[in-house]
């Protein structure tokens, strides 16, 4: 039987398994082996069991794990008594999304087994991959498995990052998830510094708040920005920010420039009648973070302007392809705007924004940019040297590395593949992949039809590698490409 290995068993792998059950298993039986050493099979780090205060940042209607059925997630919520959390005006708890992912993968596996396929889950870390006579062998510390015809890498992102080298300091919490374990020993009156001011940092604030924390909390990051607040969905059929238009412009101009993408974005904004000047103003806005949060919350509740929701939809629809096709020089231009883009493309839910705002107003919560250093004090606690310096008892890491890194658990595996020329490092991070199929591109520049990657490992190639809609869409492309390799479908161009 055709043998497929999926390495990593988080949400990306759940999407791949569901896509294989839909695209391949009804046609031909296959053997699938999923390697996942951690306790959060299918849920990964983000959707693991945790407190009710840990909210998804995206409404359920945008989190279907299967690309061919956008209603799949919403339907599951209704069928499982959670219909009130499936509306577009609310967001579910992340552990509930985790249950949905688990159930989706388990149902896919049951369907595959019913159709004659086998699925095995191995709780092992893969430390190397070897190719021998056209087949792959996975290796761990004292085991070897194979042979595999196909391998899909779903290795995830670096879980947490120790910017200030505090890992051996008492009072430092290196990993915020699950919050219900990470925060258990934080004294109620302690002053807490959180490294970062993005979505993970907001989760930590919500976790402390839910535990009745009474001490002061400082969010500290390099830029001192908070994510924007999610506005209502736009309900607009994209006409310009589509893969087809990106490909047409690329063909017509002999390449794609940043200015081409800006023109497509402007055309899309004009099509929905929004003000381009308003969007442009967001890129040059220097309003302090808390005032901006208040403005963003008002905008989310009262302003029906579809500008950012449309651009966010466009990012999901064609952001990966647009980034892929840009020249390196234009990629650097986008990078200069990366923080602003991410602020608006990955907004927080209004419910969290309202709670944050109350905490800022009460004086319990503060935010500072320009963090230069965080040093342990000889008497205990930490000095935060920043625009607004602080002395805190506890520091919690909630930040990502400035430059994407391969997660520690995956480094030996990726290094082994690199040493054999099976993968090549992408100059912007992660590894090189083919744009349409996500096939790994070898050192010799050949896209290998037997090796695919999904998720953060492709961040240099695609830039936008996170979020269920992006993962589900790419997982489907990968399953279709594997099906095509097996002769089940005509190959896509
Ligand atoms: C704070 C935060 C909030 C988010 N909120 C949302 C949201 O509300 N909605 C949304 O759609 N998206 C959200 N996202 C993004 C989304 O969750 C991620 O895109 C997704 O969780 C990534 O899943 P993954 O499977 O690629 O990675 P992971 O969940 O990291 O899984 C990778 C798995 O690979 C395994 N692994 C690694 N190396 C090896 C190896 N060598 N051998 C075997 N196994 C290995 C690991 O054990 C791990 O379980 C959020 C992200 C963050 C950080």
UniProtKB/TrEMBL annotation:
Gene3D superfamilies from the UniProt entry? FAD/NAD(P)-binding domain (3.50.50.60)
* Top-level taxon of origin: Bacteria
- Sequence ranges assigned to domain FAD-dependent urate hydroxylase HpyO/Asp monooxygenase CreE-like FAD/NAD(P)-binding in this UniProt record: 5-157
According to the UniProt entry, the coiled-coil residues are none
Q: What InterPro entries is this protein classified in?
A: FAD/NAD-bd_sf (IPR036188), HpyO/CreE_NAD-binding (IPR038732), L-asp_N-monooxygenase_NS-form (IPR052189)
Please report the name of this protein according to its UniProt entry: FAD/NAD(P)-binding domain-containing protein
Show the Pfam families listed in the entry: NAD_binding_9
